[in-house]
Automatic annotation (TrEMBL):
Record protein name field: FAD-linked oxidoreductase
Pfam families to which the protein is assigned, alphabetical: FAD-oxidase_C (PF02913), FAD_binding_4 (PF01565)
Gene3D superfamilies listed in its UniProt record: 3.30.465.10, 3.30.70.2190, 3.30.70.2740, Uridine Diphospho-n-acetylenolpyruvylglucosamine Reductase, domain 2 (3.30.43.10), Vanillyl-alcohol Oxidase, Chain A, domain 4 (1.10.45.10)
Family according to the record: Belongs to the FAD-binding oxidoreductase/transferase type 4 family.
Keyword Flavoprotein belongs to the record: yes
Record carries keyword NAD: no
InterPro entries, per the entry: FAD-bd_oxidored_4_C, FAD-bd_PCMH, FAD-bd_PCMH-like_sf, FAD-bd_PCMH_sub1, FAD-bd_PCMH_sub2, FAD-linked_Oxase-like_C, FAD-oxidored/transferase_4, Oxid_FAD_bind_N
Superkingdom of the organism of origin: Bacteria
PROSITE patterns given in the database record: FAD_PCMH (PS51387)
Location of the FAD-binding PCMH-type domain: 40-221
Amino acid sequence: MSRETTQALIERLGQRLGPAGLLTAESDVAPFAIDWRRLFPGRPACVARPGSTAEVAAVVRLCREAGAALVPQGGNTGLAGGAVPDGSGTQVVLSLARMTAIRGVDPVGLTLTAEAGCVLKVAQDAAAAAGRLLPVSFAAEGSALVGGVVATNAGGINVVRYGMTRGLVLGLEVVLADGEVVDGLRALRKDNAGYDWKQLFIGSEGTLGVVTAAVLRLAARPRHAATALLAVPDPAAALRLLTLAQEEVGDSIQAFELISGPSLGLVAKHAGLRSPIGEAGWSVLIEAASSLPGLRDAMEAVLATALERGDAVDGVLAESGRQAADLWALRESITESEAREGTSVKHDVSVPITAIPDFLEEAGRVLAAQAPGTRVNAFGHMGDGNIHYNVLIGPEHAAGTINRLVHGVVDRHAGSISAEHGIGQYRVDELVRHRHPAEIALARRIKAALDPDGLLNPGKVLARD
């Protein structure tokens, strides 16, 4: 797109959106031009900030007429660079941050309808004010926006109980690549009338359409919670502990986190936080919640049985909400502590839950043999099969080589190279390498059908032709 065409588009966008709806100054667009990890810098032509669905549709139409690529952006908290423009200076960032309304909360039907720019924490608080729970929860919930949560199919700590975002979306409002608005904001648990088209847009990272609002499923708000931290001999023991907890506590388990000894070492070193159960090769953080009494007794029984069997060597059950928060602080400080330690290659992978011990053993062995000097920082959501297998490297190590080694092990265990972070631009080449060609071809056919001009977030999820 020529400089003259770009300038003409900017002028038309300004006329349609007004001063509050368009950013062009370099200092104003800078926060939208790079991801929060600062790995993927870009240079947008401008940042469009529509305040309504009608304005989103207008922006999409104007960009299509000009042949300009559009990059939808929520809170820009993603880890795969999927919401930032390239460096051409011709792509328009479409920020949904001004569309903040919560259109309704139904505490009886257990639904909440929110616009794409609503901060996830605000939506959670609105659900809580109605005595209900919005189960999606992860570290960036204070800045992530609902539209981005849907577009990336966000995961988090509660997936083991409530599932991914995909399972919590009942209805969507979407603007298509030609500017047409599709209103599917139905708050129905059962709707078998034709194709479930909304699923195409959940997790599509803005490459098929722009999510402008969503109906989200709520849950009853538990009255009781129990949080425990246990030291376990190895991941196999953690797997047995998961089975025990499922038998004793059932679907009250909403988080089951596996934490390696090196992870806690980094937290002690850089965050000054120490585990109350001392040094351990591996630890497990369990949280359960229920509206029924007796939960704490059930969790105590889990700890006692695990210790008796030798599947745990030490453990502590939080006595208060404050103590529970302190236990969670250990888990939540891992990523920041890793960043302070040095350069790392991050892997957000999943394998079948029963394969986790073997995956961890093989991946560690492969790296020790083929990338000596690397250090593994492994932690994550064992309850749903998702491990953040991050590898601290030195200048002698190539990130691409580390990726291929780790993802090769993932393949051998029938896993996925992206459990919850998405593909973005970070894993585009790896997706081609690790997905069957027929799956890639099918994805391209869907993309061609919904975005024939290839103007929605080009270069993300699928490599450019």
